Amino acid sequence: MEAVTTKRLNLFAGRHNTELADEVAANLGVEVTEAHLSQFANGETHCRFSESIRGADVFIMQSHGNLDGRSLNDAVMEHLIMVDAARRASAKRITAVMPCYGYARQDRKSEGREPITARLMADLFAAAGASRLVAIDLHSGQIQGFFNGPVDHLVAMPILINRLQTESDNLVVVSPDAGRVKVAERYAQQLHADLAIVHKRRLKGVKNEVEAKDIVGDVEGRDCVVIDDMIDTAGTICQAAELLVERGARSVMVAATHGVFSGPAVERLKNSVIDKVIITNTLPIPPEKQFDKLVVLSVAPLIADAIRAVFNDASVSDIFDGHNQQ
User: What is the DSSP letter of 68?
Assistant: First the structure.
C-alpha cells in the first residue's frame, strides 16, 4: 500500500500577544486556528483545538510576559497546555514559537543554591511534546543547548538596524555591559559605527540593581545608541544614558528587542535623558506602557520567514546570513 501525503501547516496562538500572531499569519497567508482557550472558575486553563490536526505541522506561538492581569507564569503554563493538547491530538511535528523566552536570564548559577530555570523551561517544553523551539534574541546563546532538539535562534538585528540607519550618520553603538559587547560589535559593524562600552557593577544579592561606573570609548559630540536584549525596570539603561551625556554625548537612543517595562520602567524612561526608545513587539505593549519616546517595530515578517523555512525544511540561518549563530 502506498499513500501520498501532503504537508499541512497550522498556526495556533496563546492569549499573550494575539496582535503579533495575527500579523505573522497575514505574512504567511494563513489564519490563526482557533484554540478555544478558557479558564475554569479556579483559574485553571483549558484548551481544545477547533479542528483535527492529525499529521499536521503545528506551530504554537506565545509570548512569555504579563498582560491584562495574567502573569508570565500564566503565559508559560498556557503555552505548555497547548503543546500537550497538540501532542495528544497526533500532530506530526510541534514547534513552540516564543518571541520572548521566559526565564531566559536565569541561565546559570551566579550564586550558591540557585536554579537554572532557563534549562527547566526547555525540559518542560520537551516533556509537553515540543519537537522544536523558535525564539528571538535569547539572553545567552547557551540556552540553545538546554533543549534536546532543534532550536532556531532568531535575531531582531536586521529590523533594528534598518531603523537605526535612518536615525543618524554619526552613531556610536554602546554596549551596556561587558556581556553584550559581542552583540554590540555586530551592530557596529553593520552600521559602520564606532563602539563604546559601559563599565558597570552589579550589586551582589540585589535583583534589578546595577551601578554604571564609567565609559570605555569616545562618545563626545556623538549620537549614541545603547543596544540590549531587553528593557525590564530600565534602571541600568537610564544610568548608562546619564553617564553618556556626562561624557559629552550629543544624544542617546536605546534599541532593545524585548520591552518588558516592569514596575517604574515607563516613568524612568519618560523622565530620562534618553531621546528615543526603539523596541520590537515580541511582547505586547498595552496603552498604559506607551509613551512619546517609544518606537515599536514589528518582528512578524521575521517570525513568518522562520516558520516558512521550518515548514519547508529549509535553512533558518540563511535568513540572517548566519549572524544568528554568532
Answer: T
Q: Which H or E run contains 263?
A: none
As a whole number of angstroms, the distance between CA 100 and CA 158 comes to 17
Cα 56 to its chain centre, rounded Å, is 26
The cell for 102 is: 521566559
Please give the positions annotated as active site. Answer: 200
pLDDT at residue 136 is higher than 60: yes
pLDDT at 180 over 80: yes
Helix, strand or coil, per DSSP, at residue 72: helix
The torsion angles phi and psi of 12, rounded to 5 degrees, stand at: -115, 160
Grid coordinates 529590523 are at which residue? 159
- Tell me whether residue 57 is exposed, middle or buried, using C-beta atoms within 10 angstroms of its C-beta: 0 to 12, 13 to 18, 19 or more: buried
Average pLDDT over residues 129-156: 96
CA distance 305 to 311: 10
Whether 36 shows a pLDDT value over 70: the answer reads yes
Domains and CATH numbers, the chain: 9-155+300-325 (3.40.50.2020), 157-297 (3.40.50.2020)
Write out pLDDT tens, residues 190-204. 999 999 999 866 656
Residues 129 and 153: their CA atoms lie apart, in Å, by 19
pLDDT of residue 145: 96
The number of CA neighbours under 13 Å toward the Cβ of 307 is 31
